[in-house]
Amino acid sequence: MPTVEVDSLSKTFAVADKQPGMLGTLRHFVKRKYRMIQAVKGVSFAIEPGEVVGFLGPNGAGKTTTLKMLTGLIHPTAGSVRVLGQVPFKRKPDLLRQITLVMGQKQQMIWDLPPIESLRVNAAVYDIPESEAKRRIDELADMLSIGDELTRPVRKLSLGERMKCELMAALLHHPKVLFLDEPTLGLDVNAQTAVRNFLRDYNRKHGASILLTSHYMADITALCDRVVMIHKGGLIYDGSLADIVQRFAPFREVKVELGGDVDHDTMQRYGEVESINGRIARLLIKRDDLTATINRLLADLDVTDLTVTDPPIEEVIGKVFDDGATGNDTNTPTVGTVQP
Amino acid sequence: MPRYFNILRIFWSASISAEMEYRLNFIMAALSSVMTLAGTVLMLFLFYRTGYEMGGWPWRDALVVVGIFTFLEGTQSAFMTPNRTRVTEHVREGTLDFILLKPVNSQFWLSVRSISLWGVPNILMGLAIVAYALITRETLPHLAGVLLGCIALLLAVLILYSLGYLLSTISIWYIKLYNITMAMQALVETGRYPITAYPAAYQVFFTFVLPVAFMTTVPAQLMTARGGAGWLLGAAVVAALLLMLSIAFWRFALRYYTSASS
């Protein structure tokens, strides 16, 4: 049985519309106008036990709304969600003991107290005996390489240290399902790596399922084999990370170094010219024509060096979001068509 | 149930140690409490100096009302105000999410999460005034009456809590509601003097619309042997109804909670 099952999930919000200026403010105060916004439209996917799934989408795509429906914080307008076989919106204690939510922008730590106090509160709430709680705290602290930060007031901790403590608080009850909403937001590279490694370890140790949103592709590539992408509330991709490039970028990047200077017009005959810099040209060439085109290049021109690479995944995904991919149709990708 | 007591213990010890971070606060609280109380007693004294009896309450008995008022004010600022402001904060910042995802009753959490030492001087002083007024009275009160009065006082706390929670629940819709504290303060404020000292229309309003009468006057009546047990029953009914209403209203409000989007 999948850990998380989402079936044609939709959410519509009424959002207050405010016109700018004093008059608008006044109108807004007296009589509010509401507009319906469909934040999530018919999204379906499933997560298996132990799976780490990246949840991608540009700002405002509906990621957080979906996460809130998955954790039962908001009620779906249509469709259904099952987490560990239960309906999350009922928020049954039995389910709540097995899930957790981490939000990069929000914190549950008590600001004026050392994190250890917040951890004690959570231990009591989740009914973890003191000795067991202590053992778990030591274990988590060790995995996150946290030491005396636990006894310093939260307000004196750095963002990275605070996030590590947030993770401890969120995982103290050893949840089976983790919903992580940008857990590495605003962290420096070292802290990001630490959080990533920790999540990977936790996933292996406890066989937990993880659904992770992040704007840092490095988080996704490091942790997730599979990604689910949404755009404007709709699902646009659900599959392996590696296939994204295939699906959305039917081009490969070819870098050729020539014996002498080349001009734009000549190169354009072989593919889409990305850049020309003296003797070095970068081309985008369709995957299907790759071999033939390279053969032509080698035959026609004085090539001294040639490398073929996939465009970086960040770029591909960025393009998907910019262009607004429309479907799961592999044969007619509407994105990835690069205009010069 | 033992789990809830354990949670309460940890909540309160955590929140007291948070308060201890600011030591000066406590001294200020004690000072301001003494000043306010002195002001109230002086006001009352000015009335009684000329032989005026407020709504038929002699000086000592009116002091009992002041004591109960001070106690309730202290209870409110120790146990209720810090939690009420937090409800609003949690809604505005979206951290209510974390609480809703805990396997614990959210109203319990939001009602007892923090306590503030600010109210403690008022609680102690209020009780002291009540004791002083009762002991120095011409006729010593009956023990039974005092006990009934104490029950009425507990009901008063419950009424105060339920009203406050009802008000803070509104922040689910109207996010910024810091004025709740002010409103509740003003409400208790009206209980400073015996309800019978107010004109008849106000008495009706303070009994049936805003149950202030049940908060200070009824306990004092029972303690000073001037009111029947009927009032106590009334207080119990009002308290039970308001408590149930606050629970039902909170559940209703949660259905509308969409939380602040990130």
In short:
The complex is a heterodimer of chains A (340) and B (262). Chain A is built from twelve helices and 13 strands.
Main features:
heterodimer; A: Rossmann fold; 2 domains; four-stranded antiparallel beta sheet; globular; B: 262 residues; 13 helices
Provide the fold topology.
The complex is a heterodimer of chains A (340) and B (262).
Chain A: E1 4-17, H1 21-30, E2 33-47, E3 52-56, H2 63-71, E4 78-83, H3 93-96, E5 99-103, H4 115-125, H5 130-143, H6 159-171, E6 177-181, H7 189-206, E7 209-213, H8 217-223, E8 226-231, E9 234-240, H9 241-248, E10 251-258, H10 264-268, E11 272-277, E12 280-286, H11 290-300, E13 303-309, H12 313-323
Parallel strand pairs in A: 3-7, 3-8, 5-6, 6-7
Antiparallel strand pairs in A: 1-2, 1-4, 8-9, 10-12, 10-13, 11-12
Helix pairs in contact in A: 4-6
Chain B: H1 2-20, H2 23-49, H3 59-93, H4 96-100, H5 106-112, H6 120-135, H7 143-169, H8 171-174, H9 179-189, H10 200-209, H11 212-215, H12 217-223, H13 229-254
Describe this protein's structure.
- The complex is a heterodimer of chains A (340) and B (262).
- Chain A is built from twelve helices and 13 strands.
- The radius of gyration of chain A is 25 Å and the shape is globular.
- In chain A, helix 4 (115-125) runs parallel beside helix 6 (159-171).
- Chain A is α/β, with parallel strands linked by helices and 340 residues long.
- Chain A folds into two domains: 4-8 and 42-242, P-loop containing nucleotide triphosphate hydrolases (Rossmann fold, 3-Layer(aba) Sandwich), CATH 3.40.50.300; 250-309, Alpha-Beta Plaits, CATH 3.30.70.980.
- The radius of gyration of chain B is 19 Å and the shape is globular.
- Helix content of chain B is 76%, strand content 0%.
- Chain B has one domain.
- Chain B starts with a helix and ends in an 8-residue tail after the last helix.
- In chain B, helix 3 packs antiparallel against helix 6 and helix 7 (143-169) packs antiparallel against helix 9 (179-189).
- Chain B contains 13 helices and no strands.
- The chains are: A alpha/beta (340), B mainly alpha (262).
- Chain A binds chain B through residues 13, 64-65, 68, 71-75, 91, 93-94, 96-97, 99-101, 103, 105-108, 110, 112-113, 117-118, 120-122, 124-127, 153, 181, and chain B through 3, 6-7, 9-11, 14, 17-18, 21, 93-95, 97-98, 100-104, 255, 257-259, 261-262.
